[in-house]
Design a protein that fits this description.
Blueprint: E1 3-11, E2 17-26, H1 37-49, H2 52-56, E3 60-64, H3 67-71, E4 83-87, H4 89-92, H5 95-106, E5 110-114, H6 120-123, E6 131-135, H7 142-154, E7 158-162, H8 167-175, E8 180-182, H9 186-189, H10 203-211, H11 218-226, H12 229-239, H13 253-260, H14 262-272, H15 283-300, H16 310-318, H17 322-326, H18 330-335, H19 341-349, H20 352-365, H21 369-379, H22 383-404, H23 408-415
Parallel strand pairs: 2-3, 3-4, 4-5, 5-6, 6-7, 7-8
Antiparallel strand pairs: 1-2, 1-8
Helix pairs in contact: 10-11, 10-14, 12-13, 14-15, 15-16, 15-20, 15-22, 16-19, 19-20, 20-21
Length: 418
């Protein structure tokens, strides 16, 4: 039985990720619309194999449990401090499942109700609920939501707006005073606190051009990186990290490049060009770029008659947020880069096979399962491969993220032995 899974960030008003919701698709139907034992068994098997710390990056997991999953005591696989048990209408009206929810609450788990509505059955379990999740993809009366928020505030309940997939939904949630938001629009909407280092438009662009040449010049790459102390130090810090476990520490940019290799440099140089601004930068946006790049380059290798190379596929995913990060129109930012017309067309209009690849990755991260199936079929790859590569890329991104995103002042302290 095939199960697809994606995590979606829940963010606060300071662009910090407070947790990740797990969204599933099991076979041809949504897990949330099915309560049969076979669906529960499939998810139970997946959770057994999941390294939750790596997948969630140390953040709280928000997982919806069907009545069967609750009764099989699957939530106990998670630390109560790291899990929010989400329930839907099917668990509220299920007598045994409802009893399980109260038991989990007594054991220290937080409880969230997804798709909260103003109706007696929802208020009947209000005493056990910690978090109310309101669906902003539906047409909702602002007065109704305002009433829910007011009641929630008086009773110390947290409100989360989910399915915030459009600018209009985002503005509505903000206007109504919802502080926590989740959805396709959320991670890409907050750009005001992304701070670009001076080398982003100069060294970074020159570096990208050089490393994507058919025969990159290692001496030129060394020179470009060496122009900026923060970039050079970040590179050496990375190569000397526990991730590489070297016997002898490297002491120069050129040594670091030899250890790192051009392929990994292509993948990581983008992240090395950023650092948080006072700890408030929306790093989730940068993570999205990194994850998209990794997925595009991985999937490219399995697409028949693909029009772009693996390296170009990486740039396709990486630059999909470039316009947002630079706060300029995408066409303008791409004009400064020497990349293929297929990649530019895919980024600007979503056309061609490269466009279908990027749209496939975007659909997957939004849990748009119908879109995933459509684009995967167009590209001639199975849905199961997309799911597999997503999980692999999540592990890959998380494995190096902490080292790459260390605040610069912390790096300086490490350098000075303090």
């Amino acid at each position: 039985m095939e199960t697809s899974i994606v995590r979606q960030a829940i963010m606060d008003e300071q662009n910090n990720v407070v947790g990740y919701e797990v969204l599933y698709k099991e076979d041809d139907g949504s897990l949330y619309n099915r309560a049969d034992t076979s669906a529960a068994n499939a998810i139970e098997s997946f959770l057994n194999d999941l390294d939750s710390e790596k997948f969630f990056g140390g953040k709280t997991a928000f997982i919806t449990f069907t009545p069967n999953l609750l009764l099989k005591e699957i939530p106990k696989m998670f630390d109560e401090k790291k899990l929010v048990i989400q329930i839907e209408d099917n668990s509220i009206i299920h007598p045994l499942a409802q009893k399980s929810v109260y038991r989990y609450k007594r054991q220290g788990y937080k409880i969230a109700v997804k798709g909260f509505e103003f109706s007696p059955r929802y208020f009947a379990i209000f005493d056990v609920v910690d978090i109310i999740k309101i669906d902003f993809s539906k047409i909702i009366e602002k007065s109704t939501v305002s009433n829910i928020i007011e009641i929630a505030g008086k009773l110390n309940k947290t409100v989360i707006a989910y399915n915030v997939n459009t600018e209009e939904a985002y503005k509505d949630a903000k206007e109504m005073g919802v502080k926590l938001k989740q959805g396709a629009y959320v991670a890409e909407s907050q750009t005001s606190k992304v701070r670009r280092l001076d080398h982003l438009q100069s060294n970074f662009f020159q570096l990208v051009v050089e490393i994507t040449k058919p025969e990159p010049d290692i001496d030129k790459i060394t020179t470009i990186i060496s122009r900026d102390v923060t970039l050079a130090y970040s590179l050496i810090k990375l190569v000397n990290s526990a991730y590489f476990a070297l016997r002898n520490r490297v002491k120069s940019v050129k040594q670091a490049l030899i250890v790192l290799g051009l392929d990994q440099l292509k993948q990581w140089i983008y992240l090395l060009s950023f650092r948080p601004n006072d700890g408030n930068a929306p790093t989730e946006l940068i993570k999205i770029s990194f994850l998209r790049a990794s997925m595009c380059s991985e999937l490219q290798q399995f697409i028949p008659d693909m029009t772009i190379t693996t390296a170009e596929a990486y740039l396709l995913g990486m630059f999909s947020t470039l316009g947002i990060i630079l706060n300029v129109p995408l066409e303008k930012s791409l004009a400064e880069l020497s990349i293929s017309d297929d990649v530019k067309t895919a980024l600007i209009s979503g056309e061609g096979k490269a466009g279908a690849l990027l749209n496939l990755v975007r659909c997957y991260e939004k849990a748009d399962w119908r879109g995933v199936s459509s684009h995967a079929a167009l590209l001639g790859i199975p849905n199961s491969l997309v799911s597999q590569k997503y999980l692999e890329c999540i592990d890959y991104v998380n494995a190096i993220w902490d080292e790459l995103m260390l605040p610069y002042d912390t790096m300086q302290k490490d350098k000075n032995g303090k």
